[in-house]
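From the methods appendix. Each design record in this collection lists the tokenized structure first, followed by the designed amino acid sequence. Records were kept in a plain field format so they could be parsed without special tools. The example shown here is representative of the layout used throughout.

RECORD:
FOLD TOKENS (493 positions):
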């Protein structure tokens, strides 16, 4: 089996060399490394003596279908019928060669055919819906507009591949795929999560701790996960899900293991259909504790918005130094630090730090108390959530500009209490909330929607933390949040 898989990988590598990077991106061609193909093949349940119809949609040079077929036959399947679907002409030709080789090596127990078609419009004569036992896939990924209704309505081609796979599977059939983690969070995929998880029961997850791990060769900086689902009408019922995690793409079998209930990962009580990924016993405990917190920004009467100043649109309004004309402070992401707001940065910062007072009112927020939160974090940063308070007393200017890479928390029709702002910033900067956020989102972007979903303690607790924040160190605040979570009660610290 190793031989065949390595050969398919070598052919994929040849294809890669023959195709321009832009073209590869357009086709979503990122080939699976052999170690991952073998691992995924091993995740497919083999039933001894069974005849298995196996589908590899977006097959490339065929590595996944071949690895799965070889593994199933080695584990006692009677026959495997492999259908490998590839749209791109040159790749399809290579796929045919790979499959011929696999047939020659694995013998008549393998029937394999390469179909040249668009997976999203696969004719029923090629693969009849509801007749496939197993789908193994590394689908392409790129955004798809709702106006293009091929394969479904979800916002990316990879989730449409997952939807197509679900339709083609028999009841009880399996889907094993390596996909970006992006569908686990955010508003865009909410509809997909809801409908897909109603029909498909999550059974197995593998998380890569490094964002580069899976497709290092192609420089793909995307957090990927391997998931295995089973088509079940009662998919939401709580069953066991095994979650493993590894740093890279090697030694996957020796990964850290955690056994969870499905409802710990996919909370059926939450209407936003979240998909959280705890990977350690500590994560699991944190999840259980955080779910006891009663609030969210909305229940506290708060809202989070994106800074209204988009620099290239407001170029005329921005200035490096306040000259004769009145100007207000302009706050960028770089000014937001966990240790507090750091403004101005002066010469070292090559961007304008003021916005003219004559700028349209909609670009400015009134002087007051706010929590500012960076919208992006870099890989190197220790924390994904980086917050600072913007306090009324900090500036004398009646209005402030907030740049678009900063989110700010405010109270519509009212004002935050300064202790409330300090308490919220301390929470967002805490080790535990950061960890919770990472379980909910694989992205380095911090979207307002994700923050709206964060569980928060009662208002009195937030104020209590805010009062402590004036004198306490970051470490002491971390410990206070820790204690709050453990206490799980709305008392002030
Ligand atoms: C991410 S690559 C994975 C290839 C292979 N399965 C592997 O694991 O190495 C996705 C493949 O899907 C093909 N593809 C993209 N869109 C497709 C579509 N709509 N229908 C069929 N194949 C498609 C691409 O040409 C590419 O070969």
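DESIGN:
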């Amino acid at each position: 089996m190793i031989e065949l898989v390595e050969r398919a990988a070598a052919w994929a590598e040849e294809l890669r060399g023959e195709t321009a990077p832009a073209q590869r991106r357009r086709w979503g061609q990122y080939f699976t490394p052999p170690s991952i193909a073998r691992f995924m093949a091993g995740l497919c349940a083999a039933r001894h003596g069974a005849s298995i119809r196996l589908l590899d949609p977006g097959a490339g040079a065929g590595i996944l279908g071949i690895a799965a077929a070889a593994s199933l036959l080695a584990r006692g399947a009677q026959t495997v019928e492999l259908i490998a679907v590839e749209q791109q002409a040159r790749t399809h030709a290579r796929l045919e060669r790979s499959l011929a080789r696999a047939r020659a090596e694995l013998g008549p127990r393998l029937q394999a055919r390469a179909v040249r078609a668009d997976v999203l419009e696969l004719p029923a004569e090629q693969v009849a819906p509801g007749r496939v036992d197993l789908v193994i896939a590394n689908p392409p990924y790129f955004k798809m507009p709702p106006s293009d209704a091929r394969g479904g309505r979800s916002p990316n081609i990879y989730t449409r591949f997952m939807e197509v796979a679900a339709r083609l599977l028999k009841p009880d059939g399996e889907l094993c795929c390596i996909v970006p983690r992006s569908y686990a969070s955010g508003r865009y995929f909410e509809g997909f999560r809801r409908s897909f998880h109603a029909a498909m029961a999550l059974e197995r997850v593998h998380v890569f701790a490094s964002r580069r791990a899976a497709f290092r060769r192609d420089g793909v900086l995307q957090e990927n996960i391997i998931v295995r689902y089973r088509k079940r009408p009662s998919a939401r019922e709580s069953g066991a899900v095994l979650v493993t995690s590894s740093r890279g793409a090697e030694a996957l079998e020796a990964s850290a293991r955690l056994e969870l209930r499905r409802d710990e990962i996919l909370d059926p009580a939450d209407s936003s259909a979240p998909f959280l990924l705890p990977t350690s016993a500590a994560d699991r405990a944190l999840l259980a504790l955080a779910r006891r917190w009663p609030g969210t920004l909305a229940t506290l009467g708060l809202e989070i918005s994106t800074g209204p100043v988009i620099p290239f649109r407001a170029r005329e309004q921005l200035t490096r130094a306040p000259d004769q004309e009145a100007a207000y402070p302009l706050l960028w992401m770089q000014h937001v630090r966990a240790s507090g707001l750091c403004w101005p940065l002066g010469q070292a910062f090559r961007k304008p730090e003021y916005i003219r007072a004559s700028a349209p009112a909609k670009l400015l927020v009134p002087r007051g108390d706010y929590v500012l939160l960076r919208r992006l974090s870099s890989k190197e940063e220790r924390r994904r959530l980086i917050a600072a308070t913007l306090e009324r007393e900090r500036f004398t200017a009646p209005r402030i500009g907030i740049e678009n890479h900063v989110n700010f928390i405010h109270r519509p029709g009212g004002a935050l209490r300064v202790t409330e702002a300090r308490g919220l910033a301390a929470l967002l900067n805490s080790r535990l909330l950061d960890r919770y956020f990472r379980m909910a989102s694989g992205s380095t972007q911090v979207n307002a929607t994700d923050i709206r979903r964060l569980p928060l303690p009662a208002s009195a607790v937030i104020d209590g933390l805010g009062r402590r924040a004036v004198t306490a160190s970051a470490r002491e605040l971390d410990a206070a949040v820790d204690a709050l979570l453990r206490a799980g009660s709305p008392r002030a610290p």
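APPENDIX NOTE: Residues 2-279 form a domain with the Rossmann fold fold (CATH 3.40.50.150).
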